[in-house]
Amino acid sequence: MELYVVEADGDPRQFWIECKMSEIQNFNEEYFRISGYFGEYGPNMFAAAPKMYDALKVCLKAEKERRKKLKSGSPASTYTDDRIAKIEEAISSAEAV
Questions:
Q1: Phi/psi at 36 (nearest 5 deg)?
Q2: Degrees, nearest 5: CA angle 33-34-40
Q3: Residue 28, exposed/middle/buried by CB under 10 A (0-12, 13-18, 19+)?
Q4: Is residue 97 over pLDDT 70?
Q5: N or C: which end of the chain has fewer CB within 10 A?
Q6: CB of 86 within 8 A of CB of 94?
Q7: Is the confidence at residue 38, as pLDDT, over 80?
Q8: How is the beta sheet containing 33-37 ordered, strand by strand?
Q9: Element (H, E) at 19
Q10: Tell me: the pLDDT tens digits for 45-86?
């Protein structure tokens, strides 16, 4: 499901992030709408979060495959391990309940 940013009437600092009603198959499980005032990241960052989450999972898989080919203890493996840790941390944050 794709999320859309809608600017509130009358106040350019307030936005809604919502799903497109025509795309909903199961209203009780898929309906999404939030509103508020957004700080430095802006509403587009929040609306893009589902796509970024999916992209991070792809990146994590690729980094783990890359790690298998690197010599343990080499600078490249250290950098890869750091990237894997950061990606896993971000994914865990997104999945936290």
A1: 160, -175
A2: 135
A3: exposed
A4: no
A5: C
A6: no
A7: no
A8: 3-7, 14-19, 33-37
A9: strand 14-19
A10: 888 988 999 999 999 999 999 999 999 899 999 999 999 999
Which strand (E) or helix (H) includes residue 15? Answer: strand 14-19
How many residues does the structure list for the chain? 97
Q: In the block, which residue shows the tokens 């991070």?
A: 56
| Three-class SS state of 9 | coil
DSSP 10: T
Side chain identity, residue 37? Y
Task: Tell me: pLDDT of 25 over 90.
Answer: no
| Bridge-based pairing state of the strands 14-19 and 3-7 | antiparallel
Q: How many of the other CB atoms lie within 10 Å of CB of 82?
A: 11
